[in-house]
Each structure stands twice: as C-alpha cells, then as structure tokens.
Amino acid sequence: MARHTEGHRTNRVGWLRAAVLGANDGIVSTASLILGLLASGAASQAVIVAGTAGLVAGAMSMAAGEYVSVSSQADTENSELDRERKELADDPVHEHEELTNIYVRRGLDVELASNVARQLMAKDALGAHARDELGISETLMARPVQAAFSSAGMFSVGAMLPILVVMLSPPAMQTLAVSLTSLVFLALLGALAAKVGGAPIVKAASRVAIWGALAMALTAGVGAIFGVIA
Ligand SMILES: [Zn+2]
Questions:
Q1: Which residues fall inside 5 Å of ion ligand 1, going by CB?
Q2: Would you say 216 and 210 are in contact if contact means Cβ atoms under 8 Å apart?
Q3: How many CA atoms lie within 13 A of 183 on its CB side?
Q4: What distance in angstroms lies between residue 126's CA and the mean position of ligand 1's atoms?
Q5: Span 158-170, pLDDT tens digits
C-alpha cells in the first residue's frame, strides 16, 4: 500500500526549532510595532503599553496556533497508528510482506529483507511499521502542550527585548537602539538555529536579519505616514 508519503515528516516542527522561531517572531513583530509607533511620534509610555499588549496578543496567538497545528498532527499520527495496529492484528502475513517490500526498495535483497522484517516484527511489530512505513518515530511524536508553551514563552522572551530597549534608552535614541539590537539578536538566533540544524550559519543569519529589517522598515514607514497625517 502506498498511502503513506514522506510529506508529513517535513512539516513536523521540533520543539527547539519552534522555540527559535517563536523568539524570532517575538522580536520581529514587537520591534516592528514599536518602530511604527515611534515613527508616528507616539509618547514612550504609549509605545511601551502597545508593545506589551502586542507581546501578550502575539504569545497567545502563537500558543493557540501551535497547539492546533501540533494536535491535529498528533491526531493524524494516532489514527495512522490505530489503523496499523488493526492491520497487524488482522493480516500479519500481509504486513510482513509490506515491510519486506519497503526494505527491498531501500536496497536489501528479498531474503535478507524478509529476515529483517520478521525479526523486527517479533520484537516490536507496531514500532517497526510506525518507523519504516509511516515515518513516525518516538522522538518525533507530536506534543501539542509542550509546543504551545514553548513557542508562547519564546515569543514573549523575544518580544521583551525591544520593549526593554525602549524603556532603557533616551527618547532620541529609541528608534536606532530598537532597530540595531533587534537585528543583532535576529542574526544571533538565525545563527543558533542554523548551528543546531547543521545549516550554513552566515547565510541563515543574514536571511533572518534581512527579513527582520524589511518588516521593521515597512512598519516604520506606515508609522511615519500616519504620524504626518495625524
Ligand atoms: Zn504496515
């Protein structure tokens, strides 16, 4: 049966990657919001209140989004496992054949593949099918609550940065300070994510920083336009 594709594996976001993405989003969205307000000429107090409201709204939206997406993924995995469990009980011979074919496609000869399938199934039939047929491994099993807390928490950490910078810097320096610190932290996070994932570090860091700069420039532009109109 060819009903399983490799596709559902790639959209599974590990908690560490979700955490880095969360912090990233927190910095980009809150720094952009703050720069827009600063460009409109809003007072520091209003900027800090809006930034904090943005932090809470963003964190909740991250938590809800992550929870929904990871739970629906967990539901899919569980129903796939249930179906596999039933198939194993109903027709173990066919299931052995199925696993054998998978190993043959990966390069084993039929006899060896059949042996490997039999021995793996004797130890943990569902585990062997989950891994090699469905592409579900224990470490990748979706954890919705963990994912929700992790991305909301990391979004808040990221969002705190530009808010603190506004609080701590003199009004004349706020725009420059928020832009620079945000870009530096975005680049560091990009580099960290790349290092963890084994991707090219400079490329990843500059990609994140460029998108962050674009977001901040656009919202600052919007703020400046409204500042002129108001
Ligand atoms: Zn199977």
A1: 95, 98, 129, 133
A2: no
A3: 16
A4: 8
A5: 999 999 999 999 9
